[in-house]
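Dear H.,

Thanks for agreeing to be a second pair of eyes. The structure we're designing against is below in token form, covering all 260 positions.
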């Protein structure tokens, strides 16, 4: 079985967020997919099987299957459009978060994702202890989003992974207004065995939606300020949807010999 490693949300290799992509004829067991995700030890491994006019798509971290993943959807789209469906510019994915549509526009892949009804929650001493800096605001839905006063606080942060486990949300995201982008952010996921997700697309369903409201803009250029770094181009579509776009680069193609 072929496996592809694609760097998502970047236009050059060894940046952005790497994802493994496996396009298969039939589904292996959940246990086998979990084992391969642990073997890869990337923040996400995506598995796809052809279904109807698109593909059934599932995402696994080294710790669990997740309901929504942006960078592995982008990576999957690079593989599908450039290797399996070269004549297509629109692809439908059937996922645990419903049907997701991705369009190829030049070098970018535009993903139509849901937004979330995130609620402001109290900033706590536990948040300050975990991040080393006190947030000015906290928001919660699927993930926790903590807003900080300065970009430098986000870039220089070294959170306590053990304390992050005590905070709410699947991922713990931090964000601030940016100097060269509308916002900068980072994403930490010890609960799903990912200490830091280099560039998290799904987190920006909340992050970009928040900054669009604050800045009164429909289009948000977001930068994920991890060591690898990556750019996300987001547009609020209304009706509970957001477009998240980025580029991707194929880094590796391999053959899996183990029986799944």
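And this is the sequence the design step returned. I haven't edited it by hand at all.
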């Amino acid at each position: 079985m072929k496996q592809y490693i694609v760097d998502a949300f970047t236009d050059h290799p060894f940046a952005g967020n790497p994802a493994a992509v496996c396009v298969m004829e039939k589904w292996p067991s959940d246990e086998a997919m979990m084992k391969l995700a642990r073997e890869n030890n990337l923040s996400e491994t995506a598995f796809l099987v052809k279904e109807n006019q698109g593909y059934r798509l599932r995402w696994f971290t080294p710790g669990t299957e997740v309901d929504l993943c942006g960078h592995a959807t982008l990576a999957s789209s690079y593989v599908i459009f450039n290797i399996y469906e070269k004549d297509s510019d629109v692809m439908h994915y059937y996922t645990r978060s419903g049907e997701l549509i991705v369009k190829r526009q030049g070098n970018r892949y535009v993903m139509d994702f849901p937004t979330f009804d995130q609620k402001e929650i109290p900033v706590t001493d536990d948040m300050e202890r975990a991040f080393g800096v006190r947030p000015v605001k906290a928001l919660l839905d699927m993930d926790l989003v903590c807003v900080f006063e300065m970009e430098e606080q986000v870039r220089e942060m070294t959170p306590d992974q053990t304390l992050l486990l005590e905070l709410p949300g699947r991922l713990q995201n931090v964000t601030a207004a940016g100097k060269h982008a509308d916002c900068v952010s980072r994403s930490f996921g010890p609960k799903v065995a990912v200490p830091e997700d280099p560039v998290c697309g799904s987190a920006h369903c909340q992050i970009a939606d928040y900054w669009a409201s604050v800045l009164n803009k429909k289009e948000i250029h977001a930068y994920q300020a991890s060591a690898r770094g990556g750019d996300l181009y987001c547009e609020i579509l209304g009706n509970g949807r957001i477009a998240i776009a980025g580029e991707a680069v194929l880094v590796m193609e391999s053959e899996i010999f183990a029986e799944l």
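Two observations from my side: The chain has two domains: 2-114+245-255, 119-239. The chain has a mean pLDDT of 97.

Warmly,
E.
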